[in-house]
Amino acid sequence: MTLDLDLPGPPAANRVVVAMSGGVDSSVVAGLLARAGYDVVGVTLQLYDHGAAVARKGACCAGRDIHDARRVAETLSIPHYVLDYEARFRKAVIEPFAASYLAGETPVPCVSCNQTVKFVDLLETAKDLGAAALATGHYVASRALAGGGRGLFRPADDDRDQSYFLYGVTREQLGLLRFPLGDTPKPQVRELARELGLGVADKPDSQDICFVPNGRYADVIEKLKPGAAEPGPIVHVDGRALGTHDGVLRYTVGQRRGLNLSVGEPLFVVRIEADSRTLVVGPREALETRTIRIREVNWLGDGALEDIGPEGLTLRAKVRSTRPSAPARLRPLGNGEAEVELLDGESGVAPGQACALYDEETGRRVLGGGIICAPRRVAATARPMSEAVR
């Protein structure tokens, strides 16, 4: 496998910092770059200490993963540093994550981590170390654009595509970021790890949110915000009072399980009204959405976002990491917000999730994205069952 990071001069003249999580992907990146002759420096971020997470397989950035990253660096004979970013991670990722859930949203902490700790703080550290680039094991691609600058693209292996989580990378950051695995299938990455003699070749991939080692995010939120799980009413979209719940932080839009309702029809969470702690439920068709508003928009497309006319720009949008992108139309609203019209409609779009945008023609180039806002609705008013609209 030949690596070309599109940097001036021979590899030996370029220092590259590799963000090493202790997993197979970033370890292979470090190994390939070292083998290609780059001046490689490995950096691992200590982001949290959750006790149980230290010994849990599949949880990244914990004690075992730091140990694995150190062993890989020793195997490759490259310098390796562990940076204590716990305070930064808590302030930039964990606390906003908890606040977002309590506001009735379903946040994506990997997006905020990439936008803050990894590609702001760590990039600054790479610059301080005199690096020409920061390389990671993400499955995306960064390529030079015909008009100058670099663009972000989906990887060759669609099953490993992580572009949804990286839409927030800025144009300036793309100038320094490199993603060497963008054109490499995962099975080949594991083969390369064996070829390089790395002990993490068969290490399982991380699955959970890294700071929620047991998969129960509500427990983490309650620990951060004692008393946050306050009960409230469950109300049908037609106004019927159906029961109570034990905390909005335990639910997300589109959820069916865990409602504990016996009303003779399948019901789903349609929206969460956090101010009144109300869970609004309804039939599946009530989840259909055609227009959403996104905030904190990061634009990577050609020209400026504000230059898009009132007719909008036709592109593709992805409103959940597990869903494919679909035809959409983007209209800027100003103040870092935009409207996304989902031309085919979507079901169960959850506020707080990311909306990643892609070019219309190929669906491969990432044009940016933003955070999905809660719909502007009048709060539901609960009525007794006897007053229900028949």
From TrEMBL:
InterPro entries: MnmA-like, MnmA-like_C, MnmA-like_central, MnmA-like_central_sf, Rossmann-like_a/b/a_fold. CDD domains: MnmA_TRMU-like (cd01998). Disulfide bonds join C113-C210. It holds the Pfam family tRNA_Me_trans_C. The keyword DNA-binding does not apply. One of its GO terms (cellular component) is cytoplasm. Belongs to the MnmA/TRMU family. This is tRNA-specific 2-thiouridylase MnmA. SUPFAM superfamilies: Adenine nucleotide alpha hydrolases-like. It is found in: Cytoplasm. The record marks H138, Q353 as: Interaction with tRNA. Residues 229-282 form the tRNA-specific 2-thiouridylase MnmA-like central domain. GO terms for molecular function: ATP binding; tRNA binding; tRNA-uridine 2-sulfurtransferase activity. The active site is at C113 (nucleophile), C210 (cysteine persulfide intermediate). One of its GO terms (biological process) is tRNA wobble position uridine thiolation. The keyword Cytoplasm applies. It comes from Methylopila jiangsuensis. ATP binds at A19, M20, S21, G22, G23, V24, D25, S26, L45, G137. Keywords: ATP-binding, Cytoplasm, Disulfide bond, Nucleotide-binding, RNA-binding, Transferase, tRNA processing, tRNA-binding. Residues 160-162 are annotated as: Interaction with tRNA. Catalyzes the 2-thiolation of uridine at the wobble position (U34) of tRNA, leading to the formation of s(2)U34.
